[in-house]
Design brief:
Elements lengths: L4 H19 L4 E2 L4 E2 L2 E7 L6 H17 L4 E6 H10 L3 H11 L14 E2 L2 E10 L2 E4 L13 E11 L8 E10 L2 H16 L2 H7 L3 E2 L10 E2 L1 H19 L4 E2 L5 E3 H7 L1 H5 L5 E3 L5 E4 L4 H8 L4 E2 L5 E10 L15 E11 L4 H19 L5 E6 L12 H18 L4 E4 L8 E7 L5 E10 L2 H4 L3 E3 L5 E3 L1 E10 H12 L12 E5 L5 H13 L4 E3 L6 H10 L4 E5 L1 H4 L4 E5 L6 E3 L1 H14 L2
Length: about 600
Amino acid sequence: MEFPIETRRHSAAHVLAAAVQRLFTHAKFGVGPVVDNGFYYDIDIGRPVTTEDLDAISSEVKRIVKENPEFVREEMGIDEAISLFESLGQTYKVELLHDLKNRGTTKLSEEESADIDAEKPDTVSVYRMGPFVDLCRGPHVEKASQIGAWKLTKVSGAYWRGKVENPQMQRMYGFAFATDAELREHLLMLAEAEKRDHRKLGSQLDLFVFSDLVGPGLPLWTPRGTVIRNVLDEYVWSLRKAKGYERVEIPHITKKDLYERSGHWEKFKDELFKIETREGHIFAMKPMNCPHHTQIFARKMHSYREMPQRYANTTMVYRDEQTGELQGLSRVRCITQDDAHVFCRRDQVQEEMLKIWEIIETFYGTVGFGDLQVRLSFHDPKKIENYLGTSEVWMSAEDALRNLAKEKGAEATEALGEAAFYGPKIDFIAKDSIGRTWQVATIQLDMNMPDRFDLYCVNEQGEHERVVMIHAAIMGSIERFLSILIEHYAGAFPLWLAPEQVRILPVADRHIEFAQSLLAEMQTADLRTTIDDATDSVGKKIRNAEKSKIPVMLVVGDTEMEGGKLTVRRYGKEDQEMALQSDLIQALQEEIRTRK
């Protein structure tokens, strides 16, 4: 019998937990959800899990799969389940069950509420697999041997229910696929990904650094890394400027009143960096820019003739991410957003979103992600209390996004529950050079924020007309986007984006003066150029330039100094080229201009 991969992965998490219970009879279990390519389980064995422990657990999983016990489902009332798990000493499960029982007043995460059946709200299900019993809605495979191909991978610390005041558990991860071939392919991809790890390449290429004195999740950008950030941001701005956007600027802090009005304070107050002034006023470091931008729009009355208003703003926002969740540039506490907001009339929405879509297609085609997938991220109608506004407003906004995707001829998937709390969005998914997918750009349609801030224009009849707000990020978080881009290129950036485009390699000291004159010519032509004037051999200079992934290397010797053609080496190519200096400069300028 064939089972969906999510079912296999969730069942594999149960087999992992059963193996842990065999080896650590006192173990207490949290939640074990499915994640991309596998699963994890949060488990408390009273101490950190070692590499030797993980090997032993893996061997025990193999034994259980070979024994092939059945998954047996049983339904029971919540009170009965509480008694059962109390008798088993599973305190975390008992806590979840009490919260499920009181879910009207207790907030549960998606993983925690997965055990409740909406059609049977006072009943839960448990699964037995031999002596192991777990609280779970299911479904599962029929027998342990049907989980497919799997591999336990790593362990990290995780606070119970994500709160630092709670006990720290051990989060055990594993991969699971339907076949051995799929697992092997994934492991090969991961091996390649490890070589491309942006944290290693960032250090090797001198792009960014983290400082213990500054703090985790707060990257510092070197001159080389700053060049890449600026080149990308300037490119996005050139695309926006062509569509009629104007730049704005905002402060990095705000009174809490702004976020109370927008709804962000209630939704994200635990993730905000808060500041108390000498006078006792509460401010917050901004976690997003949209509420500030509403106040720029609201500064004066706008005629319909002035609509739309398009604001662009590249600026940092700040979020109090937990230390254990920080990862290189992928997840940081200071996030640079290439943010933009359009305030427009309802009949202008489609045209404005099409302009943004065109910018996204152009930008990602240029940086090497030409084939973008499209996902429509909508609200979950069963949890309307999690969102601003009414169901009618949400349905109207979501229909607008469906129509836009249809207009573009995009084969869009729909994802319930993935919307922002103030509006639905179009998410663009890119596939990198080793086959991984990443959510990148977004377009969000917001009919709620203008209501909360009473934003309007004066229409043809002289009446106040409620406007619509469109949120658009092209790179989104520049830090996260650069982590993706560094790994996509394996650090070998195209010429237009490379922080150092040309390196001149004089063969001997007598060639340095000519190399310096060549450097001046290159810099006059706006080519980012340096000289390696060390006393090393030319072979070592070439190897150093290759290690730094310099796109163009110019070897300068007697022939070049005497007016001959330049010897040109391109990164990643064995064959050398010969070119006149003027022809080379012109060719490089054209390559940069067209961003090939």
